[in-house]
């Protein structure tokens, strides 16, 4: 049975191996250069304390390949489900060959077990390999990434570490079971894609933020968490302050909520979107008055801080990365186990 | 070998609300070539799939060679099933099909398989997807035979073949049954396909078994009576009317009886298998008409 499964699967396996091989070569060639230029840049910027701008420059230079690679890892499990999972059974049903193979001296359960096992393992290995290679290559960029692309942020988290293996296993078995139910390849593929995409969107939106109680903390305002303060030139109206989606001193965190508190501890609207929140500070005299020369914004920010304005942020810190990765893999492993059980039940009871 | 190849009691299978086969009670003794005949959609495929374990019965039970169909590898090894349209893996060569058979069957006879392919004049390296319908059927049959089954089930094996390929296929099947002892159960909607090869016949019409018996006995007990017009209930009690047709002056009956016919009013003739099967199909249609008429009254 292993022979037959491999004979049917070897074409797609070879194609996947070839693509992954090319991918690995490309990453292996460019990866060390990226790492060394990052190391050199860090060494230079720590000397004169300009690392923030170095990060921006460095990440800006490579953001396209960074995004492309992340996307590849995100899409690979879906492809596995679509092109390996869905047709696994439907191809037999459509060709009628299930009637041929189920009448050899082998039970359907064993037939399915070998097919699921072998193809599934290759799928998981491919996704795992791809994920880990990209994780390695992207390491310097993950260190310097902008807030939205932080390692814990939904898009990037799902494309790093071991999570892709869980996704691939799940997408594959999902494709198989949908194929068994739909019995035709094309509808099965479409349905697999729809269901998998929905789950992949629901996971970071609804489940992942609550895997562990997020940390809530208040921070003084500073360069690390403000996008700037605008002081009206005419005077009269209040200065406006805009917060950054970042946790000061904790890069890589996933910011779940980000609010500006006034001195009495109430939330002020507009701190994180649009033009910013009005700050109740004198704009006719003092550090926030217009006309103050260089460093006005810094001085004004200091004044706002002194008055008691704070950033309150709820986040999942970077330290939880591997813990979350394991939990997420565990959840998808449970899904996978459930669907696998269902597929065995279905092939024994219902499919004919 | 057990004495009966297939035993079914009250066997039925439903698809949704429709019964594809119902109240099927048959007992097929071993060592026969059994023909299963009936119009399209009568439930032939359903019965064969139940026998091979592809389907589970909705009602009743079925025993094949003393075991539950597809009830384990030992049972699977004893029964070969060649499905309708004789499916093969299009991407695999004939040699790979034989390898598949060898890997998946404990009783596989590789020499027999290779010998058969050679005699058919097929190249082992040939892709199964490029074979003609007849060649594909032969490859599927070869797989079924090399498994060395005790029962070989074939579902409309010649339905899509041209007359020449039909004859060749049937001939190959007959040679194999003579050479190696096993029972065969094959279906067709054409009696002519089965006439020369079967020694046991099952007629299945509209999801019910009409008759299941050895062909010799069927031919010996069925007659066509032609004579002056007469109602069917005025026939002797030992004569069961299978079908009846009347003109103004004449009546024609197909009857079944074990006793000789003495009534001099009748012109008595024997039936061939095809007429016999048609009579049973006709009977069913007549029963149905009567039933609907009664409902309408």
Automatic annotation (TrEMBL), chain A:
The chain crosses the membrane at residues 66-90, 111-137, 157-181, 188-207, 323-347. The keyword Membrane applies. Keywords: Membrane, Transmembrane, Transmembrane helix. It comes from the Bacteria. This is Transporter. It comes from Sinosporangium siamense. The lineage of its organism: Bacteria, Bacillati, Actinomycetota, Actinomycetes, Streptosporangiales.
UniProtKB/TrEMBL annotation, chain B:
The keyword Cytoplasm does not apply. InterPro entries: AAA+_ATPase, ABC_transporter-like_ATP-bd, ABC_Transporter_VariousFunc, P-loop_NTPase. It holds the Pfam family ABC_tran. Residues 6-231 form the ABC transporter domain. Keywords: ATP-binding, Nucleotide-binding, Transport. One of its GO terms (molecular function) is ATP hydrolysis activity. It comes from the Bacteria. This is ABC transporter ATP-binding protein. It comes from Sinosporangium siamense.
């Amino acid at each position: 049975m292993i022979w037959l499964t491999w004979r049917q699967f070897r074409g797609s396996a070879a194609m996947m191996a070839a693509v992954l091989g090319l991918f690995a070569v490309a990453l292996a060639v460019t990866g060390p250069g990226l790492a060394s230029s990052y190391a050199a840049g860090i060494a230079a910027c720590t000397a004169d304390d300009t690392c923030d701008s170095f990060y921006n420059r460095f990440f800006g230079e490579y953001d396209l390949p960074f995004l492309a690679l992340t996307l590849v890892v995100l899409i690979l499990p879906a492809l596995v489900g679509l092109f390996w999972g869905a047709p696994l059974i439907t191809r037999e049903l459509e060709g009628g060959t299930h009637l041929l193979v189920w009448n050899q001296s082998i039970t359907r359960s064993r037939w399915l077990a070998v097919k699921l096992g072998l193809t599934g393992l290759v799928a998981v290995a491919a996704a795992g390999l791809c994920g880990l290679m990209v994780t390695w290559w992207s390491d310097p960029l993950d260190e310097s990434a902008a807030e939205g692309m932080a390692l814990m942020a939904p898009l990037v988290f799902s494309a790093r570490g071991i999570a892709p293996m869980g996704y691939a296993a799940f997408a594959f078995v999902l494709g198989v079971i949908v194929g068994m139910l739909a019995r035709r390849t094309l509808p099965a593929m479409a349905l697999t894609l729809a269901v998998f995409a929905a789950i992949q969107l629901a996971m970071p939106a609804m489940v992942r933020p609550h895997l562990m109680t997020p940390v809530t903390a208040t921070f003084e305002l500073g360069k690390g968490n403000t996008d700037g303060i605008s002081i009206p030139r005419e005077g009269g109206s209040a200065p406006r302050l805009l917060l950054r989606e970042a946790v000061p001193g904790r890069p890589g965190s996933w910011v779940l909520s980000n609010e500006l508190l006034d001195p009495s501890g109430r939330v002020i609207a507009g701190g994180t979107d649009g033009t910013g929140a009005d700050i109740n500070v004198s704009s006719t005299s003092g550090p926030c008055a217009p006309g103050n020369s260089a460093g006005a914004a810094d001085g004004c920010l200091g004044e706002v801080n002194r008055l008691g304005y704070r950033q309150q942020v709820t986040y999942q810190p970077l330290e939880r990365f591997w813990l979350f990765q394991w939990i997420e893999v565990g959840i998808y492993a449970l899904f996978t186990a459930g669907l696998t059980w269902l597929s065995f039940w279905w092939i024994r009871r219902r499919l004919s | 070998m057990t004495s009966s190849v297939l035993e079914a009691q009250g066997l039925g299978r439903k698809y949704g609300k429709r019964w594809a086969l119902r109240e099927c009670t048959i007992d097929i003794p071993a060592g026969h070539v059994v023909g299963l005949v009936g119009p399209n959609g009568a439930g032939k495929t359903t019965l064969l799939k139940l026998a091979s374990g592809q389907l589970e019965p909705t009602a009743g039970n079925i025993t094949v060679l003393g075991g539950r169909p597809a009830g384990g590898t030992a049972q699977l090894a004893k029964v070969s099933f060649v499905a309708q349209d004789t499916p093969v893996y299009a991407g695999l060569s004939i040699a790979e099909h034989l390898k598949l058979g060898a890997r998946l069957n404990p009783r596989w006879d590789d020499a027999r398989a290779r010998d058969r392919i050679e005699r058919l004049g097929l190249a082992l390296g040939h892709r199964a997807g490029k074979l003609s319908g007849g060649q594909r059927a032969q490859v599927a049959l070869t797989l079924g035979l090399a498994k060395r089954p005790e029962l070989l089930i074939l579902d409309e094996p010649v339905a899509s073949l041209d007359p020449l390929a039909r004859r060749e296929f049937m001939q190959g099947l007959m040679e194999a049954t003579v050479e190696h002892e096993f029972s065969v159960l094959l279906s067709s909607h054409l009696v002519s396909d089965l006439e020369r090869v079967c020694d046991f016949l099952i007629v299945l019409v509209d999801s019910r078994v009409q008759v299941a018996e050895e062909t010799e006995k069927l031919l010996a007990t069925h007659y066509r009576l032609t004579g002056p017009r007469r109602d069917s209930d005025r026939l002797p009690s030992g004569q069961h009317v299978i079908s009846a047709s009347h003109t103004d002056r004449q009546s024609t009956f197909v009857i079944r009886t074990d006793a000789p016919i003495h009534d001099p009013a009748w012109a008595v003739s024997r039936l061939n298998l095809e007429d016999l099967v048609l009579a049973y199909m006709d009977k069913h249609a007549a029963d149905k008409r009567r039933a609907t008429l009664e409902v309408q009254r």
